[in-house]
Amino acid sequence: MNIDLPTLWFGVVALTFTIYFFLEGFDFGVGLLQPFLARRETERRAMIGTVGPFWAANEVWIILAAGVIFAAFPVWYGALMTALYPLFALILLALIGRGVAFEYRAEIDHRRWRLFWDVTSFICNALPAFLWGVIMTNMVRGLPIGVGGRFQGTPLDAFDLFSLLGGLATLSLFVLHGATFLLLRLETGSELYARARAAALSFGAAATVLVLLFVYVGFVREELFKSFGYAEWIFPALAALNLGLIWLALTVKRDALAFVATGLTIVASTATIFLSLLPNVLPSTLGETYTLTVQNSASEPYTLRLLTWVGVIFLPLIIGYQAWNYYVFRQRVTESGAKPSGSVLPDTEA
Amino acid sequence: MNEIFGFSALDLSRFQFATTSIFHYFFVPFTVGFAFLIAVLQTLAYRSGSARMENLTRFFGHLFFINFAVGVVTGIVQEFQFGMNWQGFSNFVGNIFGVPLALEVLMAFFLESTFLGIWWFGKGRIPAWASLACIWIVSIGTMISAFWIIIANAWMQHPVGFEIKDGRAVMTDFSAIVFNPKGLEWSAHILTGSLTVGAFFVLAVSAYHLRRRHEVESFRTSFKVALVVALVGSLGVTLSGHEQGQSAVRDQPMKYAAFSALWDTPTGNQMPESLLALPSNGLRENRLEVSVPYLGSFLAFNNFNQKAQGLNELQREYAAKYGPGDYIPWVWPVYWSFRVMVGLGGVMLLVSLYYVWRWRRGKLDDPGRLYPLLLAMPLAPHLANFSGFIATEMGRQPWIVQGLLRTQDAVSNLSPLTVLLSLVAFWIVYLTLISLDVFLLTRTARAGIHEPDVETPSVPSPEYLPEGQLTGGRS
Description:
The structure holds 2 protein chains of 2 kinds. By secondary structure, chain A is mainly alpha-helical. Chain A has helices at 5-37, 41-51, 55-72, 74-83, 85-104, 111-141, 161-185, 191-221, 234-251, 255-277, 301-328; strands spanning 280-282, 292-293. Helix content of chain A is 71%, strand content 1%. Chain B is mainly alpha-helical. Chain B has one domain. In chain B, 68% of the residues lie in helices and 7% in strands. Chain B has helices at 9-48, 51-84, 87-121, 128-157, 174-178, 181-211, 216-251, 253-259, 295-301, 311-322, 331-360, 371-376, 379-394, 407-410, 416-447, and strands at 3-4, 7-8, 162-165, 168-171, 273-280, 285-292, 399-401, 405-406. Chain B: Belongs to the cytochrome ubiquinol oxidase subunit 1 family.
């Protein structure tokens, strides 16, 4: 197979999204599970501590994904973001909220202060976890874009039952991924760990139902993912198999396997989305001629060659030091370690 | 519906971009300058091996962390907005402009966020030399990040290394873009300016505690370090600013004329500089003007007998070259913000010199009569940055890319209502953020250095099990 530069960079876009959903998937999940799993303040702290040293670096992958689309496929960048403007605006506001919640929650030891940030954190983890599914669904299905990638629809075009189902599928997958991540990060004997296991099982079931429903609607009703030809079922089938594997791994208490399997589901789902787009990047529902393809929306070869050099040098480096980050903080988080600190403001309602 | 409350999507998008950029720009220079100071303090701590210095570094590190969080999250918005609100711009310049942005992420954002996390949470888990390396990596990361974004912006002000192909700007020479003289001058200006932001903050916090005789030895050290950086920064920002004014005369004469409110090209053989003016775009002249002869010529050309073109003459030239239209930026905000920036730069230099003088006379521990001013000084570099931003970005209008793309042709095809809603949401969130940031910074700064066991609760950092005591078999 002859891979040209635009196709290579389309692959890089797909790869960065995949890494992003894999990594940020579990910290969205941990944030979403926190109100349901943690009962005591020390438990809440322990849960935040499981992602504390990682979430900021995980988030950079979406900034990279956006940067790569901008540099390598400027027309796609403008068309997608303008068409789904309200969704991206909400995601940005949510990413602001959760980042600040992570950092500011512990600044003041006061019940209402923490409650405020816990609520903010929950909403701001839920919004992107849901909206990324809506965005991906719209991207695969196409949008009413006209000449020059100019959007011809209304902000409400992004929402229908299918895209909402896509949103629920990513939301439940991320929660499941967060739960299996917790099983690797929490002290195995704790009550919190036991609750995380129970959550993983129930969310595993929910995610299985939602993802399979999404696959059914996508393949059969909407007739998407046709570009795979004979192999069109491979990736969704892998995702489905994996969901079964997760359930199995959880039942026989193989935590690491369960985490790898939830991760693989995310990887396979993201790969399905991007492979099914090829050779397009954004189909137009107004007609084939307006569809943005890998070739017609890519930057010039000079820019792409430059990006290739930069990517070859820096991507391995980044992956290397991020791996070191996970290695430094490889120990499980203990609840007893997360002792409440000295009160600064009176804890009136504690 | 093309307008809402009389505002078009273009007006609202411009306002949103200005809002989000200026808010973001309160945090970025602070991060750049402050990270450098903390790295210097930790180097001193490492070399002396003193626990006192270590605590001092942690104290300022805590303040840094509070601010860094907001800087990062507001930065994400900046990148996405180019696609969301400025589709015409993205299509036109993506080939070129996207590259420094992608480089910024690859070379800087990952470094900053990964190594800051390891530096902060990894205390006691990594060796001291690795911790020191982490904070220097963070500091260098912030500077690399600033560099690439300045290179991107410099290209918009002074496009180089490109050709126009099928109505889009296409890169032909990356090294010309990296070594854009505009970008290099600007980097010097913005990096030294950022140093002053960090330095005056550390100076104020140190003076506050020196005045209260709290941890005198520690805060004396941070005061000295910050003072040296403040002096170097203020001098650097003044000199590089002068340099930049001179290059603006060559590359963006319209902007330079707006800085000086110079409507008519001087008739004599030299150019005066106006000290005080009330410019009016409607009248195309100043309602009131006090100017000093020869000064303008000196500032712009380093000699006393040259002159630059005035706004009116440039307008005629541009209309002939680019077609009918108004090419004069809105002069009064440009003129006045330029003056506020320069004035504040002068104040920063004088205050630094005053405290260096006190230091030489052995009066370092006593902030003296200028103490209230010193406490207010952290605002000065912020306001100077704000004014500089307004002057340079409004001075470029109506161009988004000088001479190539007008702002009105760059905007996305959005309904004004959509943009208004996002604008309101950003305002609410950003105002909340800035209040929280100032509140937490003040509170933590005033609390001062605590013994480690009564340390103010900071970022979530639960303790981890010591090595060799892992519970759970598979981890």
